[in-house]
Each structure stands twice: as structure tokens, then as C-alpha cells.
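Duplicate of earlier report; DUF2336 domain-containing protein input re-posted below.
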Amino acid sequence: MGVAGLYESAGAHGGAPEALADIFIALTRSAEREIRQVLAQRLARADWAPAALVRMLAADEIEIARPVIAASPLLLDDDLLQLLADCSIEHQIQVALRPDIGPAVARAIVIGRDPAVMTALATNRSARIDAATFADLVGQAQQLAALRAPLTRHPSLDETLALRLFQWVGEALRQAISDRFPIDPARLAEAAREATHQAAAVEWGAIAAPPAADDLDARLVAKLHAAGQLRPAYLIRALREEKLGVFAHGLAVLGRFDVAQVWRALRGDTARPLFLACIAVGLDRAAFPALLTEIRKLNKGFPRDPDSSAWRLAERSADQAAYEFRLLMAEIGDASV
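Output:
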């Protein structure tokens, strides 16, 4: 801390020598966690600190990095893009929440397609998001319910995108959109009808299981679970035996998911949520392509995947995969995930 004070004082009198910056960085690198955390708080808004030191603190563990990422004027777009590429989900979320982030950073976040990071960006009303990127973000709200409420309130939302968003939100958010935009009632009614038709097609057209069969599947899974015989490998066996309902209920029980969320994942336009659920319960990611093929045979081609690779995510822990699955499958009004 003495070196920090010396560096700040030298900066006020014509600039600190480079050797002092090197000493400052070397000392910080070898300092204990508590010292780095106090230093990060002190340097969070400083414009006199060595930029290399600020970058080092921003890449440190998240409790140290958070104040620096949130406020340091020395972090440039290139530094933020590097954090998005190299650091944890927690670091990426903090980048997305940083005030006044630029278009290039916002674009990288949306391209990354991480649900938690995109949701953080949607809540950041000071972010400078270009029109094409914001339209892409609104498009993601069809699958990612957590985006809908913050996008409804976002200053970049225009009437055209509001009408698109209107199709996917619940009654409360529809009212908020109607209050904000003077959209022709006939256009709103048409959007509401289209949303209703889409929901009906999803509910009855793809995989709706007969209630009696679904109840039998649920009871079988509950019995196996009570006997300690429900394992991830059993899910693969259920598919081989063409028991999609047993697979769905088993995945829900093992992952502690709502079975309705699993069914929504099974009839989705992307296999990404299903992949996350499988990782969350311990299925090998290398086995997922074969598992997906079996599911599609039993499920009229669902879940679909227009680009065939949307589910190919970077490594995720089981807990992180479970969190992202719940975030993707949440509906307005669901309990917080």
C-alpha cells in the first residue's frame, strides 16, 4: 500500500518511472488474497494506476476483479474482450454489467450466446448496443425467457422489436409494451393470435404424451429413484427401449428440474438446453450426439437445431450447466433461478 501511495504521488508530479510500475506489479502478484482485494478496491476508479496492474487484477478471482471490471477507466474494449474470451462466467457477467460498454463488447457477448451473460447485458441500460446486435438479442428472447422482462424496459427497444417481443411474453409484459408504445391494437391482436397458435402447435404437435402414459412413467421413475436405482446410464437405456417419457422424468428427477422444463427442452428449436440438462446430471458430453439422434427418432425430429452446432458449448461444471438450463427454460412468473 506504501508503494501504491508512492506511485500515486509520483504520478501527480510528472509521472511515475517505469521501474516503479514494475515493482508495484511484482509486489501485487506475490501479495496475499486479502491485500489484492483491498488494493483492487483502492484502484477501482483510479486513472493513475499502471494499466498492466489493472488488467492483472481484472483477471484475478472474481471477488478481487469485480470492482475493477465495474469501474476502472483504464480497461479498454480490447481488455474487456480478452476477459470475455479467457475468464469465468462470473467475470463475463461483470463485463456485461459494466456501465457504458461499447458496441464491440456487446456484440461479443451476444455472439457468445451464454444465457447468464446475455441476461446481464439486457439489464444494462447504459450499454451501447448497435441495432443489429440488439435485434439479435431480442431474437434470443424467444428461447430465453429471462431476457424478456429487461428487454421490455430497455431504452434501445423500438416499436418493431417490441411487436416481435410481444409474441413471447406474458400478460404483464404485454401490458408494459402496450403502455410504452402506441402500437396499433390490430397489430397487437395479430401478434397475440400468432403467439397463441405457436404455443398450441408446440404443446400438441410435437411430443405431448398421453396423460395416463405420462403418469405411469413418472411412477416408474419415482420407484427407481426410491430404490437407489436411478442413474444417468439408465436414461440411455430408457431411450434404447424407446421410453421417451421415462427418459424425461428420469432427467427431471436426477437434475432436480421441473419435468415441464424438460419437456420444453425436448420440443425446442435448439438442442442446447437438453445438452445442458444432460451435463448437469453427469452424462458424458461425448455421448450426447448419439443420445440426441435416439431422441429425435422418438420425438418427430425434436429438438431441432438449425445450425446443428448450437449445443456445442465450452466445458461446464454440473452446477453451472444446471443453472443455465433453468435460466433457458424459465418462464415469466417462475421462481428465481
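The chain has two domains: 2-197, 211-329.

Merging into the original ticket.
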